[in-house]
Specification:
The chain is mainly alpha-helical. The protein is built from 15 helices and no strands.
Length: 346
């Protein structure tokens, strides 16, 4: 509305000054605003555009535009602005004007303490803002020593799906860290639902950001990725394809390759199972023994009374390699190179 007042006053002034050379430039600028206001559903704004367009067409002397209006106070005000008629004002006599206060010399206090005392006496803040009572729990706080971390109040999730969802937390650091620190243990014991979300979980760990400056973030993330590859090697081709993806940064490619090497080494190692000695129980002496069993009884007695001066050889621990059946899952995805494709180091 204020802009409409200015436009009408400016147009009337140009018309009174007979500055016809200015009309073309002003009309090109004003017509854009008129078109916008004509398409507005609000009645007041639409009538403003109609009235400005009609007034400008009359001042320019060309084809005059005419519109139908709804009578309201705003339309009357625009007509007065167009015609140059001002609203009649009441005459004010000199007797009604209150006399101006006499000049009084006031000496301001020099110190800030005097200002504080004056504000304390004259201020009405106590009525508007009641005093806030600080609870005892806020008064008593413990100052942490250097390097110490605040106690985390969020409990660790019980299910690996909840743990995966909490990794997307962006505001509460304790919720994120509770899930992040509990994740590796859940993967190692193959928590319920791990096989179903292993692929998405590994991808999420690759692109996971350290939003809360978590302690040992990179090491724990790497351990979680290695655990995913060890406990679920079938996800290796998916991570291998990500190495050659353009959406993957160089740091993420290097992280995946490091996890491939560590997981392959862990799968190639022998399980830590102590060799157990086989104990053969001798048959108990029975009166009804067959006559052919006496040779076995004699040999057993001789072995029990025989002393050897050499150390007994430990039995060799033989176990199937866990890496052999899944080796192709680690190798083949890294051998798939696309011709004429160059990855950027960024």
């Amino acid at each position: 509305m204020h802009l409409t007042r200015v436009i009408l006053a400016l147009g009337r002034w140009i018309n009174e000054m007979n500055a016809s050379h200015v009309w073309k430039e002003l009309f090109d600028i004003a017509i854009k605003g008129v078109e916008l206001r004509l398409g507005n559903p609000d009645v007041i704004i639409r009538q403003s555009g109609m009235f400005v367009g009609e007034a400008f067409s009359g001042w320019m002397g060309g084809e005059r535009l005419e519109f139908e209006y709804t009578e309201d106070p705003w339309l009357e005000e625009m007509r007065r602005l167009r015609d140059g008629a001002t609203k009649p004002t009441e005459e004010i006599t000199s007797e009604e004007i209150s006399p101006s206060p006499e000049c009084v010399d006031v000496q301001l206090p020099s110190s800030s303490s005097a200002i504080t005392e004056t504000q304390a006496v004259d201020s009405d803040d106590e009525e508007d803002f009641p005093a806030y009572e600080v609870p005892e729990s806020e008064k008593q706080f413990e100052v942490l020593s250097e390097g110490a971390e605040p106690e985390k109040k969020a409990p660790a999730p019980y299910y690996i799906r909840d743990c995966c969802e909490q990794l997307s937390e962006k505001e509460k650091y304790e919720v994120f860290e509770a899930a992040f620190f509990a994740l590796n243990g859940m993967i190692r014991r193959k928590a319920i639902g791990f096989n179903d979300i292993a692929k998405n979980l590994a991808k999420k760990l690759v692109f996971l950001e350290d939003k809360f400056s978590t302690k040992n973030f990179e090491d724990i993330r790497k351990q979680c990725l290695i655990s995913c590859l060890v406990m679920r090697p079938e996800i290796a081709p998916k991570l291998g394809d990500m190495v050659f993806s353009r959406s993957c940064a160089f740091f993420h490619r290097y992280l995946i390759l490091e996890c491939f090497v560590a997981a392959a080494k862990e799968l190639s190692e022998f399980p830590n199972v102590s060799a157990t000695k086989k104990v053969v129980e001798l048959p108990k002496k029975n009166k009804e023994q067959e006559p052919n069993d006496w040779r076995a009884v004699v040999e057993a007695r001789i072995r029990s009374h025989t002393r050897r001066f050499t150390s007994e050889k430990k039995p060799e621990v033989v176990a199937p390699s866990r890496f052999a059946p899944v080796a192709t899952l680690f190798f083949y995805p890294l051998l798939r190179t696309q011709t004429e494709e160059h990855l950027e180091l960024k």
